[in-house]
Amino acid sequence: MNFYDVINKRSSERSFKDTPICEKKMGRIMEATMKSPSWKNQSSYKIILVNEKSEKDKLAGAVMNDGNNGENALREAPMVAVVVGNPNVSGKIGDKEYYLVDGAIAMEHLILAATNEGYGTCWIGAIDEATVKSTLNIPDEYKVIGVTPIGEVNKHEAQDSNTHMSDHVFINKWENKFNKDKLN
Ligand SMILES: Cc1cc2nc3c(=O)[nH]c(=O)nc-3n(C[C@H](O)[C@H](O)[C@H](O)COP(=O)(O)O)c2cc1C
């Protein structure tokens, strides 16, 4: 797949087959994740991969009722990745905490690499942090940034993003919309 095919294929998948994850593919996904940039190159995030059913079930039970079936996704997928970050390792400008940025970039590298390997994912943020931390023995100083199932999907869900360039991209000044149709 070329890069833009990967971008277009990624969507939030919430229904998975129980086919085990190929370890070599998982290795490549993690290698790609480790290439993500971070604040002062401090890589303030850690990733816990979870493939034991009992632990996945506990994580699924910690998903808050978001009406999206994220709980089902964590229960069904053969692998769940939990991305956590340490605010003391990354930086802060005013009230902007960059550990969240470090972790989010790592999560996105992971998600796109998994898509490239033919796996579905879904960023799940609505999850009880205390339960995730106690289930996986995550040290106090770390905060949960995101959780994603990884696996072969039952039925591919179309991308749901309804973000339009005309609302979100400007050129030079806030009032000038960026119009890709007017580019040379
Ligand atoms: C930071 C973040 C948190 C999210 N949390 C959840 C969640 O808790 N449960 C869920 O089902 N989807 C969650 N999503 C997925 C979004 O709902 C989804 O990306 C959005 O609806 C666009 O759909 P698409 O990813 O298929 O394009 C989250 C996405 C992001 C980026």
Question: Would you kindly provide a written description of the structure presented here, covering whatever features stand out?
Answer:
The chain is α+β, with helices and mostly antiparallel strands. The chain has a single domain (14-154), classed as NADH Oxidase (3-Layer(aba) Sandwich). Helices cover 35% and strands 15% of the residues. It has seven helices and six strands. The strands form two sheets. It has a four-stranded antiparallel beta sheet, with helices on both faces. A two-stranded antiparallel ribbon has the order 3-4. Strand 3 (92-93) and strand 4 form a beta hairpin. The two termini are 27 Å apart. The model has no long low-confidence stretch (mean pLDDT 96). The structure holds flavin mononucleotide. Flavin mononucleotide binds at residues 11-12, 66, 68, 70, 122-126, 159-161.
Strand content: 15-25%
* Class per helix and strand makeup: alpha+beta
* Total beta strand runs: 6
Extract low-pLDDT stretches: none
How many individual helices? 7
CATH superfamily: NADH Oxidase
Helix percent band: 25-40%
Radius of gyration: 18 Å
* CATH architectural designation: 3-Layer(aba) Sandwich
The CATH class name reads Alpha Beta
Distance between the termini: 27 Å
What is the overall silhouette? globular
Provide the domain count: 1
In order across it, which strands form the biggest sheet?
1-2-6-5
The largest pleated sheet is described as: 4 strands, antiparallel
Bound molecules: flavin mononucleotide
